[in-house]
Design a protein that fits this description.
The chain is of the alpha+beta class and 199 residues long. It has two domains: 46 residues, no CATH class; 119 residues, 60s Ribosomal Protein L30, Chain: A (2-Layer Sandwich). It contains six helices and six strands, in the order H-H-H-E-E-E-H-E-H-H-E-E. The protein has a six-stranded mixed beta sheet.
């Protein structure tokens, strides 16, 4: 006898299911995650917490950074970026110092796009065993701190670990802007100027 419970499985599209029919782009995946994150909770307690969060969260998935209400005069912008060796950079053509610079630059670009000023950063780095005891990390952080000093950004946390083969870097930057002054993608209008940072 067929298990009737299995007939009522969720039909929400997933990246793996959709990719079988067509190419699943990065933006399709982001939209899928945004849908999952915004799904209403049925539990009363969870719904109450979510409502409180949404009164503080001004803009979430889909823009260059999330925006949170900070105080009566300030909003905070938070962004994160992931860099993976052989996808976003090659060790053979990228110096450790430039890679450290780039790790922060990609997130600073997001904060700038929101019209905010960067304040704090968190940086997590995973490197393979063969470069763990070399000068790689020292030069990497030199590049990171050079750009951080230029923009007066304080490194306040992060993590360092080893990976099997490739370098993996995750950066988080927190910025601030005057209340209600963050620049959203939804606010773009014909005739606006577009600037490319190259980060």
């Amino acid at each position: 006898m067929r298990d009737e419970g299995k007939k009522k499985q969720s039909r929400i599209a997933t990246p793996s299911a959709t990719s079988a029919r067509s190419a699943f782009s990065e933006f399709d995946f982001i939209e899928h995650i945004r849908h999952q994150a915004n799904t209403k909770r049925h539990n009363a307690q969870q719904h109450s917490v979510l409502s409180t969060q949404r009164s503080v969260l001004l803009s979430g998935i889909g823009d260059d950074a999330a925006i949170f209400r900070g105080s009566s005069q300030t909003d905070f912008c938070i962004t994160t970026d992931l860099l993976v060796e052989e996808i976003d950079f090659r060790r053979t053509t990228t110096t450790p110092r430039f890679l450290g610079w780039k790790a922060l630059a990609v997130s600073l670009s997001d904060i700038a796009a929101m019209g905010a000023r960067p304040r704090f950063a968190l940086l997590s780095v995973g490197v393979p065993q063969e470069i763990w005891r070399t000068e790689f990390l020292a030069h990497f952080y030199e590049g990171f701190f050079a750009l951080a000093d230029e923009h007066q950004v304080a490194l306040v946390g992060g993590d360092v670990s080893r990976t099997p083969e490739r370098i993996v870097i995750d950066s988080i930057v927190i910025g601030e802007t005057k209340r209600g002054r963050a620049i959203l993608r939804s606010g773009a209008r014909p005739g606006d100027h577009i600037f490319v940072t190259g980060a």
